[in-house]
Structure formats: C-alpha cells, structure tokens
Request: fold
Amino acid sequence: MTATTVLTARALLLDMDGTLVNSDAVVERIWRRWAERHGLDGDEVMKVVHGRQGYASMAVLLPDRPMQRNLADNARMLAAETADMDGVVEIAGAKDFLASLRGLPHALVTSADVALSTARMAAAGLALPDVRVTAESVGASKPDPEGFLKGAAELGVAPQDCLVFEDSGAGIAAGRAAGMRVVGVGPRAAVHRPDVLVEDLTGVRVEAGGGGEIRVSFG
Reply:
C-alpha cells in the first residue's frame, strides 16, 4: 500500500498461524510427512491445509475416508505439532501489535487447540489474549464462520463491528461468512482479496477512539 488506510471497529479477531505466529516450517514438516504416508502430492496438500483444523483438511484431501480416522489422525498430528517448536517465530510486528491492543476488545480465533496455541504463542514470545476461541470451542472448522461469531459473542460485539486478521483462504472466507471485514496478512492472503492487505504487522497502528471505537491504520 502506498497510502494510509484507516478502518474502524469495536473489536479485533485474530487468527494465529500465519497472522501472529510464523509456524510454516513445522506445518510443512508435519503435513508433507502425512502426504507421503498417504501417497499424496505434498505441494497440493499444502494448498489445502492452512487455516483449517487438521481433520477438515483431511476430509478435503481424502473425501472417502471415514471421519473417525480423520479425527484420530488429527489428534496424533496435533501432538506432533505441539512437540515441535523448531522454527516457530513471531510474524514481524506481532509483539508490538498485541501490546497496542491491551485494554481493547480483541480475541484469538485459531484452528489450533489449547495446547498447540499456548505452545506456539510462547515459542514466538507472544502474550495470549484473554479471550481465546480454539479448536475445542467450536463444532466446525474454518471456513465455517462459527469461530469468529463465537469470538464476537464472547466480546459482546456485533459481527459487523469486528475486524478480522487472517492469512489463509479458509480463514478469510470464514470472516466474510461471519459478516466481518478482513485484513489479510502475508502472501497467502493476497489471492483472496481481503479488504486490506499487509505484508506483516509492522505497519499496523491501533488507537482507541471515542465511544468504544478502535481506529486501525495501515501503511
């Protein structure tokens, strides 16, 4: 972006992987091993898995496989991901961005479970928001809007007054389905035409306005 863009909201809903935390190295390792075990092309698998819960990605990639096998496989993969923090770092600007949100309504809305989200945020040196919607909190994975709608409800803010930060196609679709505007973070977001696109979080500025308004500036 060459000019400053300003959006207003009453709450911010933040994805984790690819948005606050760069966990791509781990995701690549885990999912490419899974692809090899199942005779799938690793590059094609990587086009699907970002943003979704593991079992939902498996359902797309192996549509004829019973869901119980996907759920069991997903549990094993979550444990493997939680044990592997090699290469997990913050997205540039994430620490300062989260610090600027102290005292303002915001929530983490992630497809990771409690154990994985806690471990990855700690590995990246980031503080967890007080309000968190994790895999255990929802019955449907992104691109279903349930997680974002639940985050808005827990903050007591109408969906249309929320601003979503997301990196993946599934996450951006979930935010839009929830009736929210979406800030895309990083190269994966670019092809999904978010309302605003940023390379990382270094150029994002947040300030409290009057009457509970949050002003978010980009550029």
Summary: The first strand starts at residue 5 and ends at 9. The first helix runs from residue 24 to 37. The mean pLDDT is 96.
